Amino acid sequence: MTTQSEITGRAxxxxxxxxxxxxxxxxxxxxxxxxxxxxxxxxVDALEVAARLExxxxxxxxxxxxxGYPDVFTAAEAVYASLPFVDADPPVPTSMAKGGPxxxxxxxxxxxxxxxxxxxxxxxxxxxxxxxxxxGLTVAWGAGQASATVAWSLRGRGDERSDSLVAFASVVACAxxxxxxxxxxxxxxxxxxxxxxxxxxxxxxIAASGMLVFQRAEWMLAVCMVPAVAGSVLxxxxxxxxxxxxxxxxxxxxxxxxxxxVANRHLLARxxxxxxxxxxxxxxxxxxxxxxxxxxxxxxxxxxxxxQLDGSRGALVIAVCxxxxxxxxxxxxxxxxxxxxxxxxxxxxxxxxxxxxxxxxFARSVGFYVVTLALLxxxxxxxGNARGASYVPILLACVGAxxxxxxxxxxxxxxxxxDLVLASWGASFTVxxxxxxAAYVDHNHIAPLTGLDALLVxxxxxxxxxxxxxxxxxxxxxxx
Length: 480
What we know:
Number of domains: 3
Strand order of the largest sheet: 1-2
Shape: elongated
Helix content: over 70%
Number of helices: 22
Number of strands: 2
C-alpha cells in the first residue's frame, strides 16, 4: 500500500531509497522515453505503472537482471514514487464513420447488373432455363465471401502482393465451380449449353466485381458498367437515339469483359506471390463460403418457385426491386450501427449503460431498414395491382422476409459471429425441408404457392433466431 510519505515524495519528485539501492535507476531509463514517462507520470496507482513497464519489455526477469529489483512491481513502485504527478487529458475517443448516401451508390453497383440479364436473353434470343440465375448467383455468393475473407486475412498481414493471385484465383475457381454445378443442374433438371455458359458468365462477373469492391475500386467498376447501362437505356427506345437489343447485348458483354480484366489488372503490375495461409484462414474461408452459399440458396428457392407461377414473370420483376433498391441501405445502416455502438462503448460509464445504448442503436438501424423495405414493398403492391400482375403480395412478402434475414445475418457476420449465422441457416433450412417434405407426402407434388409459403415460414424462423442472437451478441463489447 502506498504511504503518505511516498505520496509526498511523488508529488515533489523526490527519489526514495530502499536499503542501499536508489530507485532512480529505473526512473532514469523511463525518462529516456518521453511517451513512457508521460504515461507513468499520469498513473494513479503503481500497478498501472507496472502494466506500462511490462508493455515496454520490463518483465520481472529484466527488473532483476538490468535494474536490481526483486520484481517488476517493486520497480514500478520506484517509478511511481519518483516521478511527479502530471494530470493528462484522456485521448479523445474515436468512432467509426457513419453510413451515408455514398453507400446507396455502392449498393447500386450490386443492383443494376440484375437488369442486364433480360437484355442479353432478349438481344441474343437465348433459351435459358430458370436455374441459370440461381446457380450462378449461389456459387458466386459463396465463393465471393470465401475469397474476400482470404484477401482480408492477407491484407491484415500487409501481404498486398498476393491480391493479384487471389483475384485471379477467385474468378477462375468461381467459374469452374459454377461450370460443375451448371452441368449437374442440366443433367438433373434439364438444360442446354447456352444455360451453362450464361450461368458461368454470371458467376465470373459477380466474382470479378466483388474483388473490385474489395480493392476499393468502386469507381473503376462504375466506369466499366457504362457500356451496359448506356446500351440498356438506348435499347428501350425512349430517347431520340436508340440501338437494337442485339447491340445492347454486346454492350453488356463488353462490360462483363472489362470488369474481369480490370479486376485482374495487378497481374502485370506486380510480381506474383503465393499467399501464406494458415489453418485458421482456411477454416474462416470455409465458414464464410457456407454463409454466402446459404444466402444464395434462399434466393434460389425463391426464384425456383416464383418461376413456376403462371404469369409471374412481371410480378417477379416487381417483387425483387425492393430488395435490390435496399442493398446499399444495408451497408449504410450497418456502418451507422457500428459507429453508434463504438461511440457508446467509448463514452458509456459502465457495461449496463453501453448495453442499453447498443440495443437502441440496433433497433434504430434495423427499424429504419424494415420501414424502408415495407414502404417500397407497398409501392410494389400498388404497381402490381395497376398492371394486373398476379401473386405480387406473396412474392413481396418472401423477398421482404429474406431481406430482413440477410440484414440481421450481415450484422452478426461482421461482428465475428458467422458461426451463429450458420446455425440459424441450418435451423431455417431444416424447417423448410420439413415443410416441403410434408407437402410432397400429402399431395405427391409441391405447388409453387405451397413452396413460397414454406419459404416464408423458414425466413421467419431465420429472422426470429437472428434477432434473438443479435440482441445478446451485439451488446457485448467484444463484438467491436
